Amino acid sequence: MCESIEKAAVFNDKVINLSTIKLSTCDIECLCLFLTSSSHKQWVKVHLYGCYIQDRGLHIIHKYINESGITITELRLSINGLTQISSSFISNIVLSCKVETVVINGNPTIGDNEELYTMLSHPSSVVDLLAMDNVALSSTSCRALFAAVKDSTKLKILTINHNNITDDVADDIANALAVNKSLHTLDMYNPISGESMQLILQALRANKILDALTLPSCPPAIKEKLVSLKDEINDMRTKQRITQHLKVRFI
C-alpha cells in the first residue's frame, strides 16, 4: 500500500488522491505516517472519496494528524460509511489542519451530531466550502447547522441537496441568512414548500452578499412570486451600489 500512496501523491501539485481504493486499517496507518513524515507537512488536497474507511478509519486518521502541524486545504471524505460518531473527529481535523474545503457527501448519518458544525463557527475556522449532499438532516441537526452558518465569517459555499430538510426549519434558515455576511452560494434542493422558499427569500432583503441560490422546482404561480422577490432584492442592491446581484436557480 505504501507504494500505492507514493504513486497517488502528486508532489508538484501537493495532492494525494486515493479515491475509490478500499483502505484497510494498516493502509490508513501507512497513509497517516506518510502524511506526518517531516518531508510532507503541506498538502493542498487529500482525496479519500469512496474508500469506505468508516468511523474506525477516521479515528485512526484523527489520532495521527490532529494537532500534527499538517496543513490540508481540501479534504474529501464522501461515501465512506461515516456516522455521527465521526463528527467530532472531522471537526477537530478541519480546525487543526486549517482545512478550507470539506466534502462529506453521501455519509447519510454524519450530520446528526451537532459537534460537526463547530468547524464553521469556531474563531480559528477557515472553512469556506462545505458540501453535505445526501446527508440526512433532522430538524435538530439542521437548526444546529444554520446556527453555525449564522455565526460563520468564512463560509462562502454551502451545498445541502437531498437532505430531507422540511418546512419546520425555514425560520432558522431565514434567520441565519438575514445576518450572515460571508455566504455567497447556497444549494438547497430539498422538499420545502413555496411558502418556505418565500420566507427565505424575504430574509435575503437584509443580505448583501449571497448571490447564488438553488431551490427545488415549484408551481408557476409560486415561482413568479419568488422571481419577483429576487428582482426586488436586486433593485435594493442596485440602489445601495452593491455589485453582487442575486441569482436564483430552480431544479
Task: Explain how this protein is built.
The protein has 251 residues and is an alpha/beta fold. Helices cover 39% and strands 15% of the residues. It is built from 9 helices and 10 strands. It has a 10-stranded mixed beta sheet. Helix 2 runs parallel beside helix 3, helix 3 runs parallel beside helix 4 and helix 8 packs parallel to helix 9. It is elongated. The mean pLDDT is 93.
Tell me the helix content.
25-40%
Task: Categorize the overall geometry.
Answer: elongated
Major beta-sheet overview: 10 strands, mixed
Query: Which strand-content bin applies to the residues?
Result: 5-15%
Q: Secondary-structure element sequence?
A: HEEHEHEHEHEHEHEHEHE
Indicate the multimeric state. Answer: single chain
Low-confidence stretches: none
User: What does the average pLDDT come to?
Assistant: 93
- Describe the strand arrangement of the main beta sheet, using strand numbers: 1-2-3-4-5-6-7-8-9-10
Short description:
39% of the residues lie in helices and 15% in strands. It has 9 helices and 10 strands.
Keywords:
alpha/beta; 10 strands; 9 helices; ten-stranded mixed β-sheet; 251 residues
Please give the structural blueprint:
Blueprint lengths: L1 H7 E2 L4 E3 L7 H12 L5 E6 L6 H12 L5 E6 L10 H10 L4 E3 L14 H4 L7 E3 L7 H13 L5 E3 L10 H10 L5 E3 L6 H10 L8 E4 L4 H20 L7 E4 L1
Parallel strand pairs: 2-3, 3-4, 4-5, 5-6, 6-7, 7-8, 8-9, 9-10
Antiparallel strand pairs: 1-2
Helix pairs in contact: 2-3, 3-4, 6-7, 7-8, 8-9
